[in-house]
Each structure stands twice: as C-alpha cells, then as structure tokens.
Amino acid sequence: MTTAKALTIAGSDSGGGAGIQADLKTFQELKVFGMSAITAVTAQNTLGVDGVYPMSLEAIEQQIECIAVDLKPDALKTGMLFNSEIIELVADKIKQYKWENLVVDPVMIAKGGANLLQKEAIDAMKKKLLPIATVLTPNIPEAEELTGLNIQNMEDRKEAAKRLSALGVSNVIIKGGHGKEKESVDLLYDGTCFSSLLAKRIPTKNTHGTGCTFSAAITAALANGYSVKDAFQLGKDFIHQAIKMDLHIGSGHGPTNHWAYQESKR
Ligand SMILES: Nc1ncnc2c1ncn2[C@@H]1O[C@H](COP(=O)(O)OP(=O)(O)O)[C@@H](O)[C@H]1O
Ligand SMILES: Cc1ncc(COP(=O)(O)O)c(N)n1
C-alpha cells in the first residue's frame, strides 16, 4: 500500500484552529501523511491575532528543499504567505520541482480582522501563483480583492470566477460563507462549466479556520487521487460536519471540529 502525502505551505496558528495546525489535522483525518513548510508564526487564539512573525526566505526555502529531496507531495496547498517575496519564492519552488495538484487558499484577512497578506502582495499572487494553481479557493471578500468586483449576487460570483479563471487558474471555487443566503453556497468553475454545492448555513460563531480546513480537505482528496469535482464534494462534507459539531473551545471565534467528519460516518 502506498501512503498519499500532502504538503501545506502556510502560517502557524498558535491557537490550533487555522493555518498549518488545521491543515495537518485535516490531512490526518483523511488518511494522508501531512508535511509542512511554515511561512510565518502567528501568536493568536480565538479572540484574535496578537503577533505576526514572518520566517526568513532562507528558512522557508530550506523547509521546501528538504521536502523536495525526500518526500515528493502528491498534492499541496498554500495558505498565509504574508508578502510578495514569500509568494515569489514559493511559486518558483513549486515550478522548479514540478509539483502538481496545487490548491491556493488566498488567505488575506483573519476572521478577527488581522492582516495576513500585505496589500502590495496581491499582484504577485495574481501573476506568480494563480497561473500554476489547480484549485483556487477565495472567500467572497478575497474574490472581490483579486478581481476588483463588488460581489452582491450569484451572477457577480460567476463573473469573478471567470475573471480568476482568465488569470490561468484551472478551477476556481468561490466559497459562500460570507454570503447572505440561507444556504452556504460554494461555486466551482472549471473554465467551462459551473457547479455549486449547497449546505444549510449553521448559526455559529465558531468558524475560525473554516477556509483552511476546507482547502486542506480538498488537497487531501487530490493527494488520494480524487477528481477536482469529487475533492470539492469531500471538502464541503468535511467542513460542514466540522462546523456543525463544533467544539466550543475558547471565548471568541472558536475552531471547527476536525474529528467530526469521520465520527459522522460511524
Ligand atoms: N455558517 C456556516 N454554515 C455552513 N457552512 C459554512 C458556514 N460558514 C462557512 N461555511 C463553509 O465553510 C467553508 C469556508 O467558507 P468561508 O467562510 O467563505 O471561507 P473563509 O473561512 O476563508 O472566510 C465553505 O465551504 C463555506 O460554505
Ligand atoms: C496562520 C493563519 N492562517 C489562516 C488564518 C485564516 O483563518 P480565519 O479566516 O478563519 O481566521 C488564520 N487566522 N491564521
């Protein structure tokens, strides 16, 4: 039996609900061997982000190189990349090693309002990273920032997905957590067709790390050989259970429950 391996290139969340920690928990639940390259250390909890400490380019490069010489990932994702230098380095390394199945979660602002990507880095993300992405998973504010559109309805989301696809992304998933509908609707555009997945919107404030967990589940599914469409369905099921069976940890925006998906199947 061969074990699928997935890599996350993202920031560390000391509170354990988002970033690298959410990604590795999700990989583990989906029977994928998880690896990480840390781009920044954050001091945060469910109440917010108190500190952001980007790693040196040398430290990031060395982590990625160590993985490359020994542990080729079957799929990988990016999360918090913080600045344009980190984005350029990460994109160059992914190209150099010809790694496939790249999921880009364009993390910009934490739920608590802290900036996790410098404004001036958005251009580098569009020019360097998006053209090599298999799947891009913006939430609505991120899709607005990347396209300049004001997204009010489903037609606007479709237009945003088309514009992002035109930048070279193979598949765009615009997440609906920030939408106003009764259901949380996630929209996939594969460059030709649209499809969407709906789930009842759960009334909870415990949504810290939802985007990280969703994109990590998609990455794990791609590592296990799923098609993008099937990986999208698994990601949606995984995050829905994780939000529904929340853990009530911390006094702010609590984390999701990474055990919930497997428990729901027992
Ligand atoms: N209250 C909710 N009820 C059900 N699903 C949700 C809820 N909030 C977010 N989701 C789902 O969680 C995932 C992440 O969504 P979103 O909140 O838009 O991203 P982010 O965490 O990046 O801001 C999506 O699949 C979205 O549909
Ligand atoms: C290191 C890191 N990466 C990503 C997020 C985004 O998660 P959220 O939008 O749920 O705060 C975060 N808060 N911290």
From TrEMBL:
Catalysed reactions, as listed in the record: 4-amino-5-hydroxymethyl-2-methylpyrimidine + ATP = 4-amino-2-methyl-5-(phosphooxymethyl)pyrimidine + ADP + H(+); 4-amino-2-methyl-5-(phosphooxymethyl)pyrimidine + ATP = 4-amino-2-methyl-5-(diphosphooxymethyl)pyrimidine + ADP
One Gene Ontology term of the molecular function aspect: hydroxymethylpyrimidine kinase activity
Alphabetized Pfam families for the sequence: Phos_pyr_kin
Pathway(s): Cofactor biosynthesis; thiamine diphosphate biosynthesis; 4-amino-2-methyl-5-diphosphomethylpyrimidine from 5-amino-1-(5-phospho-D-ribosyl)imidazole: step 2/3; Cofactor biosynthesis; thiamine diphosphate biosynthesis; 4-amino-2-methyl-5-diphosphomethylpyrimidine from 5-amino-1-(5-phospho-D-ribosyl)imidazole: step 3/3
Transmembrane segments: none
Sequence ranges assigned to domain Pyridoxamine kinase/Phosphomethylpyrimidine kinase in this UniProt record: 13-257
EC number: 2.7.1.49, 2.7.4.7
InterPro entries (UniProt xref): HMP/HMP-P_kinase_dom, PM/HMP-P_kinase-1, Ribokinase-like
Gene3D superfamilies registered for this protein in UniProt: 3.40.1190.20
Protein name: Hydroxymethylpyrimidine/phosphomethylpyrimidine kinase
Source species: Niallia hominis
